[in-house]
Amino acid sequence: MEQMETLTQIAEFRSSPKLMEKLYEYSIIKSYPSGYVILDENASIRSIPIVSKGSIKVIRTEEDGREILLYYIKAGESCIMSFLGGIHNETSKVKAEVEEDAEILFLPLEKVTLFIKEHPEWLNYIFRLYHKRFEELLEMVNDIAFKKMDERLLDLLQKKQALTKNTQLQITHEQLANELGTAREVVSRLLKQLEKEGVVQLGRNKIILM
């Protein structure tokens, strides 16, 4: 199975076949198309997702409706926010939306805590993800505080290119604006400037990085 091959690349799972066996025994595997919201803000958390294929973007929404991208969850990774919220019996503080068509393992919360007790490799996996997410959030704070919007926009496009391994991105100006927490008009103006500079080529609902 392709998803199993992906997870066996993770050091903690590769070193513990028993953990892998239990993960597939207890999890429910589901597939979702791009754009599907698998977890909304204020929703109850009954399981944590482990992505085996595709990717998910984690978003925070402000009271005025504006959104900002926090980080991506790639194949082999899980959502640390779901993990923390779930074990503390809290509702979700973020929205998780499928970026690329995804296959996801949903591990029930009671098994999450069981794994912590029985498999030190599982705890190592969670702590490693926590460290990575913390660094990504620090980077985001740094970008907001010190980078201009055109730099942040180009950074986001390059991250999406690395994620999809494709120089042609199927995305609208509105979607980019939402992820950056700014207005669509700002993104459109900056993209036109990047096109003049030869950095990107704009098309209908697509952007090509040169």
For the sheet with most strands, the description reads: 5 strands, antiparallel
- Span of the ends, CA to CA: 35 Å
Number of DSSP-assigned strands: 8
Number of helices: 9
* Helix and strand element order: HHHEEEEHEHHHEHHEE
Overall geometry comes to elongated
Helix content: 40-55%
Radius of gyration: 18 Å
Low-confidence stretches: none
- Average pLDDT over all residues: 89
Strand content: 25-35%
**Helix- and strand-based class?**
alpha+beta
Index terms:
single chain, about 210 residues, alpha+beta, 5-stranded antiparallel β-sheet, 3-stranded antiparallel β-sheet, 9 helices
Structure description:
This protein has nine helices and eight strands. It has helices at residues 2-7, 11-14, 17-26, 80-87, 109-118, 120-146, 149-164, 173-180, 184-196; strands at 28-32, 37-39, 47-61, 67-74, 95-108, 168-170, 200-203, 206-209. Strands 1, 2, 3, 4 and 5 form a five-stranded antiparallel sheet that branches. The protein has a three-stranded antiparallel sheet with strand order 6-8-7. The model has no long low-confidence stretch (mean pLDDT 89).
